[in-house]
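Q: Could you write out the predicted structure for this multi-component system? I'm mainly interested in how the pieces pack against one another.
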Amino acid sequence: MATSRSTPASRARSTRPSPPRAISTRSVYPGTLTDVTGGDGAGSTSSPTACASASGRAGAQTSSSSTTPPGRPLVAVRGTAARPVSGTTGRSAGSGRSRVGPIWSPPPSGASRVVFSDLVHATTPSRTDEAETSANDHIRRTNLQRVLTLLHYRGPRRRPEIALATGLTRSTVGLLVAELAQRGLVTEVVAPERGRGRPSPMIVANGDGVCAIAVNTESSVLTVALVGLGGVVHQVLVEAVDGAEDPALTCDRITRLVAELVTCAGPERRILGIGVAVPGQVQVGDGVVRHAPHLDWREVPLAAMLTAATGLTTTVGNDAAVILGATSAFGDGLANDLVYLVGRPSGVGGAIISRGRLVHGASGYAGEWGHVPVAQPGRPCVCGGVGCLETEVALDRLLAVAELDGDDPEQLAAALIRRDQPELETEARRQLGHLEVALRTVVNALNPGTILLGGFLAALLDSRTEHERSALVARAVGAAAETVTIRGTYGDAEQVLLGAAELAFVTLLRAPDLVGPA
Ligand SMILES: [Zn+2]
């Protein structure tokens, strides 16, 4: 169950919103200016409070500031003052942290990455006539992809570093950077260099000028964020939702929040589209939510609804796959044979990587670990089953026992690790017992090299001793348990936004040459 971050004021504002309104923004692709009428335009709710707080932060992030860590992003919680997102740091384009996971390069030994185009069946914009694309154009596009993808996922680089990383000559890199700059996709920042000689400019993905809107739909909280190229989170809006609601209402709500972000972003920012993470089964290709039990949605054409309402191309993906993709792309790479389980407010999701590739299953819905049966008899589950993993291993039950409100996941993690609250410790042991049943099934069925636990499952894991952690997979059959590594990963609140934005960025990364001049 989602943990409400609402306030009485925000609850009061969670009544039926206005109909979808027209949003006018500038498309990154020439000839496809988005100015679509999706309603009567009434009820514009541009929030001065949210806009002022957000634009104060975003406005400070000029292109040249990309080499300066922006610090924690502001989140505008409806009806309250802006505050930082707990556990969310945003990404500084100038952080210089090593990034693994570009689409184009072989992964380092033992590491793999989720390719976002696998999640969305991304295509280049329809105006492209591939038959007329010459071989030279194809090579140029590929090289532009390589350079932009490197800067997007791994952060700023000097030209010689780009040449080294891509294997391209310095002169070719110079031409490619010039073209990317002309299209407004990268900027140059002169950074002081140690030693003598001229300072060498740093090439930075233009996270301030090229953005996507990320949406995360939980059962009681809706989050909408403006995310810049390079993984810079500019602004986050959070709104309470009173449980499962009609998808049309959620679409209205998202449309209104997107309009606020577009207004705050201003005309100088180009917005590529919207990416939405949904806790449920999403049909890859057309963004139809087949079933999202915690939202009580079935067969909802969410991508088409939001595209029509906002005029921004919308792509929808499963939240766990989206988080894993961002963890892979912006993180340290992933094991080639990995099972991922993430405990979120809306339940337990998951995904599978086998031999370096995301496993989709026959229809694209593999990885629903939250609905593995672990208790008989057990509690009824929203999926219609009984005794599913997520009915027994649940964040809201831990929060209730710990008497926490869920606003700060680090508080729960700290309480679990202290192990000084007897009731919480009892509940943690009970939940870990059920998690062990699920992990036994995981190991027996898939023989993964790594089990990665995210969200509150990571906190549960990290609260245990080494011996207790090993016991979670020790009862699997035979030799499979001998080689599996189990570890936790944090940051899903940030990763879900970065990953959702990637759903919109993936088309750009495939064809930077189709972007019009800045
Ligand atoms: Zn279930």
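A: Regarding packing and overall arrangement: The longest strand covers residues 232-240.
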